[in-house]
Design brief:
With about 100 residues, the protein is α+β, with helices and mostly antiparallel strands. Helix content is about 25%, strand content about 20%. A 4-stranded mixed sheet has the order 1-2-4-3, with helices on one face. About 5% of the residues have low confidence.
Length: about 100
C-alpha cells in the first residue's frame, strides 16, 4: 500500500510516499524497520510522477523483509537554486 501524506519537516518537504504492508494503521511501526529512500535529482514526483516510488523494487523487498519504505519528495525551485528538485544534503546532515 502506498500512502501519500503531507510532510512539514525541517527539510521543507511538501509530501512523501509511504509503502507498508496492509496492516492496522496504529500498528504501522510495530516490529518492523524503516528505510528512508531519497530520490536523485529530477527523480521526484514533479518530474516523473510516481515512477520512482513504484519501480525501484524496494516495495517488494520491504514486503518480504517486513520494513516500511518512506519516499520523501522535493520540489524544484529555481529561485532558491534548486531547479532539478535535488535534496539539500548539507541541510539534511546538519539538521538530523
Amino acid at each position: 500500500m502506498i500512502v501519500k501524506a503531507l510532510n512539514p519537516t525541517v527539510l521543507n518537504l511538501e509530501k512523501y510516499y509511504l509503502h507498508r504492508k496492509n496492516i492496522f494503521p496504529s500498528m504501522i511501526f510495530a516490529d518492523c524497520g524503516l528505510h528512508l529512500e531519497l530520490h536523485g535529482c529530477k527523480q521526484g514526483e514533479e518530474f516523473i510522477g510516481t515512477t520512482y516510488v513504484k519501480q525501484t523494487g524496494l516495495n517488494e523487498v520491504a514486503m518480504l523483509n517486513n520494513f516500511i519504505v518512506m519516499y520523501p519528495q522535493t520540489k524544484k525551485n529555481s529561485m532558491r537554486g534548486n531547479p532539478n528538485g535535488c535534496f539539500d544534503w548539507l541541510v539534511l546532515v546538519l539538521r538530523l
